[in-house]
Every structure is written in C-alpha cells, then in structure tokens.
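Hey, quick one: can you model this chain's 3D structure?
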Amino acid sequence: MPNQIFAEEFLTLAEQQPVIDVRSPAEWEQGHIPGSINIPLFSNEERARVGTRYKKAGKEYAVELGLEFVGPKMIDFVRKAKKEAKEKRVLVHCWRGGMRSASMAWLFETAGLEATTLVGGYKAYRKYIRDQFAQKAKLVVLGGYTGSGKTDILKAIAQRGEQFLDIEGIAHHKGSAFGTIGQLPQLSNEHFENKLAQAWLKFDKSKQIWVEDESRNLGINGIPDPLFQQMRMAKLWRINIPKELRIRRLVKEYAFIDKAMLVDSVHKIERKLGGLQTKQCLEAIAQEDYSFVADITLDYYDKGYEYGNSKRATGSIVDIIIDNDEPVETAKLLIERIKSS
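Sure thing. Here's the predicted structure for all 341 residues.
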C-alpha cells in the first residue's frame, strides 16, 4: 500500500522528489503543481469515455473500459517514471486522491519505485495553497503613478537580499490596458495562483515581504482575496517622480512595440479617454509621437490611481519624493527609510 501524506508534507518532499500528476493533459494544462510532470493515466478522450461509461453503466464497467485503455501503456508509464526518479522515489497525485493515483502508485511500486500519494489529490493541494494566502505577513507595499519604475525599484530591492513577491512577473501582465505588451501569454487564473503560492510559501513571514501596489485583477488573473486584503491594509510607500521622467520611461519601454498593439491598447480605454483624446492618441502613434501618447494616457491612469488611493485608510500612505529615475538609488533609500521608520 503506497504511503499517503497531506499537502504540506507533500510540497516539502516535492523540493527533492519528482511529482507525477496522473490527470489528463487538459486537467494538467488548466493548472498543476509547479514543476510536476504529467504522466496521464488517460488521454482527454479516454477520460471522457470512462466518465460516460460510469454514468451509464456503473463503476464496474467503467473500470473495465479503463483497464482496456491503460493495459497497453503500463510499460511506458513505468519507463517515464523511472526516468524522472533518480533516487527511485516519486510523488503521485490525481484530482481527488482516488483510483487514478492509487493505481499508478501501485504500478510504480510493483516496478521497484517508492511511491507516495497526496491525500485528497490536487483538490486538497488547491485548498491548502489558497489558505496560505491568509497567513499574516509583514507586507511592504510600494506604489506610485504609472511610469515611476516601481518594478525596477523592487527588483533592485530584491538584489539587496529583500523578499519580493513579483505578482506582475508571475501574471505576465503589467496591470494596465498596455499590460500584456512585451509579455508572455498569461496563465490560467488557476495556475497563476499555483505559481503565486509557490513563491509565497518560500517566504519567511516574520520578515518583510515587498510587493507592488496592484489592482485586484491583472488581465485575466486575479490576486486571491486574502492576499489582496492584506495588501490593501498595509502601509503604502508611494513613489512621487516628475511626470516628464515617467513619460521618458514609458517611451523607452513601449516605443519599440508594434504599432498595432499600441492601437489595440488605446482602444481598450477609449471609453475612458473620450473620442477626441482617443483620436489624438491614434494619430500620435501613426506619427510615432510616443511622448504625446504617454502624456495623454498618464492623465487617465493618474486619475484612476488617485481614486484607488482615496479608498485607503487615512494616514496609511507615505509619499517618497524622488527627483531622478534611478531605481538602484531609490531602492537603497527606501530600505534605509523603512528600517528607520
């Protein structure tokens, strides 16, 4: 009988042992434990057919159909698992910790591997990680108007040994209508949460964790409620940098982008910009006058940011006036300022 363990211990062992997810490829692609290997017991079509047989004829006949599918593939399962199991140990899970993972674990053990399964399966893992976002942490939230260089500042802070939860990096989105430009395709929201949890679980919650001030949603990804509420309740350290420097930074970041992508992004905020300003922005893009586009769109984003800050508790915002766009120097100043606060 394979050993069974709960999610916390399972994830600890996953740092040294391979995790084999035996769910179908479609399930795995929707979301999986980061770093896991998909060795599906059934293909997408096979899983659907077994499910249909179960509903129409019952468990016994569904199992028989499943065995027909699995039988010819068993040696391939073992070979793939052995290739991953350098020390002959594997962690195995399915959706609910039921027949799929138990069957595959039995097969691996029969073939000479030590297999451990996850109690409750992937469903239990999902509940566990979502619960962890409610862990009380010493969040340091860095804010500032669009173009302030917050991400570069935070990366410089991380290089100085501080803990940094890079939500935008994990979401592949910068949080605005222009947020997907130059980014990798976004993950499903489920897998975004999995990747976010992977980073979150590694942090020492007794020490500061830096995070950028974000809206709840970044494209199709949403920050889990418990974490978002902690971010909103924490003190906000807000960078104030001259608008002309913010314009210069945005032009540097976006001027190389295909014009069609910029046009599409402007159309996303057309209703908020208004007809005239939208027309002016589109004409400016055509003429490659990116400074004008940045100037106009910053007016829109600045108003939105001010509105979001107005919902924070009185006295919860600390303004940091910066005269130069120098992320490394700003990072040093912030660390010293917060240590002395």
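One thing worth noting: The first strand starts at residue 3 and ends at 5.
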